[in-house]
Structures are given as structure tokens and as C-alpha cells.
Amino acid sequence: MASVTLETLRRVFPDGTVGLHGLSLDIADGEFLTFLGPSGSGKTTTLRMIAGLEHPTSGVIRFGARRVETLSPADRNVAMVFQNYALYPHMTVRRNLEYPLRKRRVPAAERETRIAEVTALLQIGALLDRRPRQLSGGQQQRVALGRAMVRPSDVFLLDEPLSNLDAELRAHMRAELIQLHRTLNRTMIYVTHDQMEAMTMSSRIAVLSQGRLQQAATPHEIYHAPANRFVATFVGSPAMNMLAGSLEQRGDFLCFVSPHITIPLPARRRAELQGAPAAVIAGIRPDDLRFTGGDGEARVSVVERAGHEAVVWLTLGAQRLVARAPADTRAQAGDHGTLCVEGGKVHLFGAEDQARLIGPCPA
Amino acid sequence: MLEPQRRDQALGMALLAPTVLLFALLIFYPVAQSLFLSLHRVSTLTLRTQWIGLANFRALFADPAFRISFINTLIWTVSAVSLQLVLGVGVALLLNGRLVGRSAARGLLLFPYLLPTAVAVLVWRWLFNDLYGLINYALMSIGLISAPVPWLSQSPNAMITVILVGTWKFFPFVVIAVLARLQSIPESLYEAARIDGAGRWAQFWDITLPQLAGVLSVVILLRSIWDFKEFDLIYLMTGGGPGISTQTLPILVYRQAFQLLNFGRGAAVAVTMFGFMLLFFAVHVWVTRRREVEA
Amino acid sequence: MRRGTVGFALYNLLVWALVLAVVFPLLWMISTALKPNDETFAIPPTLIPAHPTLEQFRRLLVETPFITYFLNSVIVGVCTTLLVIVVAVAGAYGLVRFRFPGRTLIAHLVLFTYMLPAVVLLLPLYLTISAIGLANSLLGLVIAYTTFALPFALWLLRSFIAGIPVELEQAAMIDGAGRIRAFIEVVLPQALPGIISTALFSFVLSWNEYLYALVFINVDDRKTLPPGVLTMLNQNQNVEWALLMAASVLMSVPVLVCFAFLQKHLTRGFGAGSVKG
């Protein structure tokens, strides 16, 4: 049980590419932290450096007060669940679970107890005498979890463990992992590219892109106050609408202006926007964009109906937009209409640095 | 016109017809002929045959030369296969690390295997030459020996030399097969083991070896079969000598049939060897069947 | 072990020293082939020839039947390969893609013939080939060579053809091609690299073969290289080692050329034990 501290962690690969540009992050003891990002963002590299499978080019890693970045994986007392499970193919499930305990010379009686606990918790008792190739994907995943859990470790690492499961099983396992975290009460570090997993399971999310930390915050903050355009578009599905435009004074109101759209901003936001650049990007979540059929410049291109909701894809001039609509919407492809959004719900980002200028107003 | 399925079958059989024909004429018929000859006394001049039943076999098994040839074959096969295995696995493990120019190294290591046996024998006989060979010179200059060693003209030197050359010639096969398997072992297995606290030796024992078990059983079997029937290498190195100290069963067949012109006896040895091959074949089928079930 | 450490350098040094040790006999072969006779027998022996010369090669080509042997080997190799490839491609395709009674039996038989010792077939084959009047002929040798080249080629081609997705032929047949058409226009082009590999392997097998060549041909001008060159070894009291090494070098060249072409394919086929030992 330990907190994990990363200090300007940097990783340059042998071929010269920079995998990680100096990451600094404090992970609290018992926290469930997810590294979220697309492939190549550096998230797996970071996890492997914490595990000790790769060494940082520079920087410090601490578990609690202990410096570990030069230690071998065995000496760090970590546990890891691999993306392809990495179960030992020629050993039975029982022997797979025993292996970490045997390597640490845990006496037989204690081994039995620990394995019994783990098998009860994960309900894999019936599988103990089978070989990995005789198990389904979900079963293998549980065994991989079991093998990681069977030892008391300081940090529990998970490398995209759900990516090889089908959608239904994945949803089920998400709930199980949340439960597991509560029961084990260990520091868990999770890596994924799936923002749904990150949002539902984490205490905090660290969003990475191209080797740099974009934002580290709670899921709520990430969703409602994304630090920059990347985070705003990466989290949330369908992705946030992005409109390039400028801030202009129209009479009494400060407005966001772009072709076909003018959004007046509430007065209370004017103060925050002092000194903002003129060129900005407005971000509007599809849930906040409302489409009304009738006369208007917006045109519906596709309506996706998914039973409980509908997603309406629109074109406005040269701009493509997407809006959520109630399941019984009567919009159809080819319809014209108008769009509206509350000024208070709009995110604004600087066009140059893409950083957040203001977020939506609290309700 | 035949229905599609029948047409398909007919086509399949037609495609295989030349193969089956050639096999029948050139393999099965001669094997049957061997069997036939082994049960007859054959006059070399007239090629007339006279039925003598199992007399050839009885004489054969009573002949001390046969027993010696058989034991020599066992010594040669077991030693050569063992050395090929140990050297082959060792080199494969070495090649599996972070080697600069691995594919070049692998290519170079294959040279002994691909060379004509005739060339390999010439080179090694020259190296092992009593008076002018490089090996005796090198050993004498380091001081390991004080007089030139007669590598091929004395027993048991000759068998040892033959085994060494046989190891050099054929171990690359083991290297290639084992290396290919080693490179397909997922790295994540080793990583999981490291995290679980396994050191280098434990990783080798718990991960590498079990993963190699399949390939090793096939390699051992194939090398045993091929070394067992090897004629060229031993015959060209020593001719079976000195005396018959390196004479193996294949050489005995050749001697009986083509030097002593005792066709019946030669065929009897051949049939005995054929019996062994049937055994090997049965084992091979059993081993491959088991591996397929496990996969 | 990380790059740039002492351990890394030592490891590379050790492994490459080992590779060099294994290849050394061949280097010695080349070195001796370039030596004049008196230097060959000099003591101490020189690793690098002090007076390198191509004299041995000249003598080999001019004073011995080497060229005849070489040409015979080429003829036998090419003919065996052509015959075997044609039969084996058809046979392998039949084995892999068709179901007919006796299919598994034939597959097992192919495997078994692959394991037969040459000595078992030697005598009867010799008698048969003599009986049809082909003793001492290259054609007789080609026929004898099919006994080991054909099973081997079938084995190799089987795995190559099995590796081609059957969907390709099915797509062709849906597009209107018959089975044979589909085979020629779709499978054959895909299998071409495999066929070339098998042909090269076949050629090497035939090139290296000694026993049948020794027994079946007694006339000097029809001999192939292995028995031909080795009789030169036993002919004189004073063995001309440098000459023999020159012969060895030239004998090895075609094999190494084939090998250079085969580089990529070797590791793939080897797992199933595809090259005769």
C-alpha cells in the first residue's frame, strides 16, 4: 500500500523518439488512477516504467518515500495484469496463482489461504485444475486478476485488461473492477484508451497525448472542465462540437461569432474573458445542442436512433455538428431547422494554444 | 457428367496419380523387392534366386559383425543426437539475445548443414590429417598433445571424430528450429514472471523450457531418424573403419550388397533397418498426434 | 542487458567468436585452395596464404574431369527438380484441397517415404534401373533421385499451399472459374515463392547426393561431383589436398547461391522439420 510519485519522468526510445516528455504526477495511496489516451500517447510506457519493465531516461519514481526507478520489478513489490493476460500456458490455474507466492517463498499453508481467498472473491474455484487454453477470455481475465491479487503488493497495475473482451463482458467487468478496488483498497493504476472505462472506474484520470500530460483531474472535472481542446474532444461520446470563431462585442453582449452562428455569452462570463485572444474555439457538447425542425440553415444529414436516444448529424454551412435528441424525435435526413445552445454551457478555448479560457457556468 | 462432389474426388485423385504411380514403382516395389531378396540366395552372375526362407536373417543375427554394426549405429546415433541437441539449444539460446546482426549469424551458422557431405568430409579429413592437418598442429603448439593424434586411423578415435563432425554438420538444424520457437514466445510471459519475482534461472526453467518442449520432441525424433540412416558422412570419413569400428548398419548394407556381392544378406540388413524405421514412424505419428490434441 | 554496456559488448564478442569457429573449416578450405602445393604442406601452416594463387583452380578445371562432373551434377539437379516440382505441386494441391478416399493414407505414406533410408532402396532400385537399361545413365539417376526428392517436395509444398487462404479460390470460383482454372490463376501465383523455395531445396538435395550417384554410375564421364571428386581423393598416394579444397570450394558455390535466395524462407519451413538431414 503506497502512494506513487512521478517526478519529471522522461523516456526516450533507442531509435530517438520521445515516448514521454517529463511527466510529473502524485498518485495518492489507495487511489484508482487511470492513464487515458490514444495509442502512442505514452500511457503504456508510463505504466511499464512504474512496473520496472522499462527504465526512464531521466526522472524519479517513488513508492511512498522509497525511490524505485532503478529497482527490478521483483524488488518493487508491484502486481500487474497484462493486456493479453500472460498466463503461464503449461501450468494449471492453481499453479498460475501459486507462482508469485512460490517465488517469494511463502510457506504452503499461507499459500493455501491466500489462494482460497482470491478464488472465492473472483469465483474461479471451478477452474483451478484447468489450463489457460481451456478457459474463455473472461475466465482468463479473472485468473490474471487473481494472480495479481494473490500477493499483497504496494501498487496494482492494469494494462488495458478489458480490451480483449466483448462489449457485454466488458461492461460487467467494469463493475467488478470498481467493486474490487473498494474491497482491496490498494493503489490501482489503470491504462486504457477507452474513455468510458476511465470515466466510470477512476478516482482520477490523467489524460495523455503524444507523451505529455494534458490534464489530471476527477472524471467530473475532466468532463465538465476540460483543460484543453484535446481533453474536451477525447472524452465524451459523441465528441464535443468544435467551432472556430472570434469574440466580438455586439452591443451590450460579448458574443462568440462564427459563420452561421452567433452565441451571446452571459454577462458574468465577461469578467473571466478579460484579456482573452480574439480568435477562439467554442466547444459545445452534443447534449447541450438543441435542434428544432423548421425553417433554418441547419440541415440534417443522418439520424441515428438507438432505442433510448437519438443522435442527429447536421451540417451548418461548411460545418458538421452533432446533437443529441430524444428518442422520439421526428427529425429526418434532409430536414432543415435551427440550432440553439445556452451561452452558459459553451466551452471556450484559445485558438492558438487550445487551452481552456472558460468553462460552462455552474448551474 | 459426374456430380460435383464426385467430380471433385476424381480430380483430387487425378492430381495425386503421378505421385502415387512414382511411389509405387520406385519405393513400394523396391521395398517389396528387398523383402523378397532377403528371403533368397542370389547368384550374382545369373541373378537367379533360390528360396532359403529366414536363413539370411539367422546368419545375420549370429554374425558378430552385425551385432557390432548395430551397436555402432546406436553409439553414433545417441551421441550425435545428444551433442546436436545440446549444442543446438545452447547456440539458439545465445542467438536469442540482443545480438548485432542476428540474421547474418543465423545464415552463417547454416553453412555446415547445407554443404554437400562430400565437401564437409574433405575439409574435415584435411583438418584431421595426421601430419599436415591444422588440428594436430594447433593442439601440439598449445601443448595439449605431444605427438600427432591419428584421428581417423585408430579406434576409438575414429568414432569420436565421426561423432564430432556429425555434430558440426547437423546441429544447425536444431538451432534454426529452436530459435524460431524461442522468438515466438511472447515477451509478456517473461515480464509477468519478472514481476512475480522470478530470476533468470527461474524464467528459463518455468517459461523457456516448457515452451520448447514441443519443438524439442519433434527435433529429437527427426534427428534420431536422420542420424540413424546416415550413410554418406561415416562412409566417407572412415569407410566403416578402422576394421569395422565405425561401421553402422547402412554401411553394412552397402558392404554386403556391393562389395561382398551378397545380395540376399544385404537385403536382410536393409529389411532389418526398415523394421526400425517403422518403429520410428509409429513413434513420430504418436508424438505428433499428441501434440495436435494438446494444441 | 542494455546497449552500450560492457556486458553487451562481451556477449556479442562471444557469440560472433562462436559463429566464426563454426564457419572456420570453410575459411580454411578457401585458404588452402588458394595455396600452392608446397605451402599447403608447410609446417607451421599459414592461416592466410603467403603466396596466394589461382593455380589450383586452373589445374582443377584443365587437368581433371571436374567440369564434366559439374555439368553432370547440373543436369541431374535441374532435371530432378523439374520432374519433382511438376508432380509435387499437383500432388500437394490434391492433398490439401481435396477430399477423396485414401487421402489420409497417402498423406501418411508421404511422411513415411520421407523417412526411408536410401540403403533400403539402393539394391532393388539398382537392379530395376539396370534391368530397364538405364544403368550408368544420368536419366537413371534422376529417376532414383525422385525417391527422396518427391516426398520432401510434397512435404514442403503441402505446408506452403495450406498457408494460402482457401477463400481466394472460392472467390475465383464464385467469379466463374472452374477448379483447375482457379488453381492456375489464383493459387499458383500465390504459391510461387513456396514453389521456388522448394525447387531450390530440391536442387540442393540432388546436388549433394552421394550414395546413389556412386552406385548407379561407374563411367567416369557421367559421374556427378560428389563421387567424382572423392575418387580424386583416393587415387594417388600423395593426396593433392589443395586441389581437393579448390574442388570443394567450387562444389559449394551453387549451394551457397541457392541458399542466398532461400534466406527468408528457411526459418518458416524449419519448424516442421522440412529439410532432409
Q: Say how many strands of chain B there are.
A: 2
Q: How far is it from the N-terminal to the C-terminal residue of chain C, by CA?
A: 36 Å
User: Helical percent range of chain C?
Assistant: over 70%
Shape of chain C: globular
Q: Write the CATH homologous superfamily of chain B.
A: MetI-like
Largest interface: B-C, 100 and 98 residues
- CATH topology description of the largest domain in chain C: MetI-like fold
Computed over alpha carbons, the radius of gyration of chain C is 23 Å
**Corresponding CATH superfamily of the largest domain in chain C:** MetI-like
Indicate the percent of residues in helices of chain B: over 70%
Main sheet summary of chain C: none
H and E order of chain C: HHHHHHHHHHHH
Overall structural domain count of chain C = 2
Number of domains of chain B: 1
Task: Please state roughly what percent of the residues of chain B sit in beta strands, choosing from under 5%, 5-15%, 15-25%, 25-35%, 35-45% or over 45%.
Answer: under 5%
Q: If strands are numbered along the chain, what order do they take across the biggest sheet of chain B?
A: 1-2
Name the CATH architecture of chain B. Orthogonal Bundle
What would you report as the Rg of chain B, rounded to the nearest angstrom?
A: 24 Å
Number of separate helices of chain C: 12
What is the topology?
The complex is a heterotrimer of chains A (363), B (295) and C (277).
Chain A: E1 4-12, E2 18-27, E3 32-36, H1 43-51, E4 58-63, E5 66-67, H2 73-76, E6 78-81, H3 93-103, H4 108-122, H5 137-149, E7 155-159, H6 167-184, E8 187-192, H7 195-201, E9 204-209, E10 212-217, H8 219-224, H9 229-234, E11 241-250, E12 253-258, E13 261-265, H10 267-270, E14 279-284, E15 290-305, E16 310-316, E17 319-325, E18 336-340, E19 347-350, E20 356-358
Parallel strand pairs in A: 3-8, 3-9, 6-7, 7-8
Antiparallel strand pairs in A: 1-2, 1-4, 4-5, 9-10, 11-12, 11-14, 12-13, 14-19, 15-16, 15-18, 16-17, 19-20
Chain B: H1 4-38, E1 40-42, E2 49-51, H2 55-62, H3 64-95, H4 102-109, H5 111-114, H6 117-127, H7 134-142, H8 157-182, H9 187-195, H10 200-228, H11 232-238, H12 249-259, H13 263-294
Antiparallel strand pairs in B: 1-2
Helix pairs in contact in B: 1-13, 2-13, 3-8, 3-10, 6-11, 8-10, 8-11, 10-13, 12-13
Chain C: H1 6-33, H2 37-40, H3 55-63, H4 66-97, H5 103-115, H6 118-131, H7 138-162, H8 166-174, H9 179-208, H10 211-216, H11 225-235, H12 241-270
Helix pairs in contact in C: 1-12, 3-12, 4-7, 4-9, 4-11, 5-7, 7-9, 8-9, 9-12, 11-12
